[in-house]
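Project outcomes to date are best conveyed with an example. Our students and postdoctoral researchers have been running inverse folding experiments weekly, and each run begins with a structure described purely in tokens. The record below, which covers 144 residues, was selected by the lab manager from last quarter's runs and is presented without edits.
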């Protein structure tokens, strides 16, 4: 397995997607062969039936897949590593005399909250934010 060394100097595993996909297909074929009564004639799973029979070979294949996943930290997370980025950001902020505040983004409507703290509900298509405090901002979307 080829190793990458990013700018921070720590080695990261490169996920081998074709091999992972081949093992996943192999496990799927084994599941279908061991549980033929759970699938219709087109190979689709029958609603309410759950394949439960696992052969010894299928368990070995699942172990191989789990081992590969452990090596690459998930499907493509090993390449991107957001936790590593946040740790680096905190170290750099502390060395510069600042700090990083973490907050839950699930319930935070950043496009609807003004810098003064007021919340203005608006549709997603509205890009200009005008507040009663006089702040006017323009939000954009990132297209990567």
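After processing, the design step wrote out the following sequence:
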């Amino acid at each position: 397995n080829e190793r990458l060394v990013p700018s921070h100097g720590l080695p990261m595993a490169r996920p081998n997607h074709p091999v992972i996909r081949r093992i996943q297909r192999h496990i799927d074929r084994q599941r279908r062969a061991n549980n033929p009564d759970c699938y219709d004639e087109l190979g689709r799973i029958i609603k309410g039936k759950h394949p439960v029979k696992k052969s010894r070979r299928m368990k070995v294949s699942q172990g191989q897949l789990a081992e590969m996943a452990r090596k690459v930290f998930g499907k493509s997370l090993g390449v991107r590593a957001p936790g590593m980025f946040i740790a680096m950001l905190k170290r750099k902020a502390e060395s510069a005399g600042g700090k990083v505040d973490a907050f839950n983004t699930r319930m935070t409507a950043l496009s609807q909250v003004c810098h003064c703290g007021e919340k203005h509900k608006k549709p997603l298509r509205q890009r200009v934010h005008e507040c009663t405090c006089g702040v006017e901002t323009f939000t954009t979307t990132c297209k990567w």
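The first strand starts at residue 3 and ends at 4. The two ends are 28 Å apart (CA to CA). The training component of this project remains on track.
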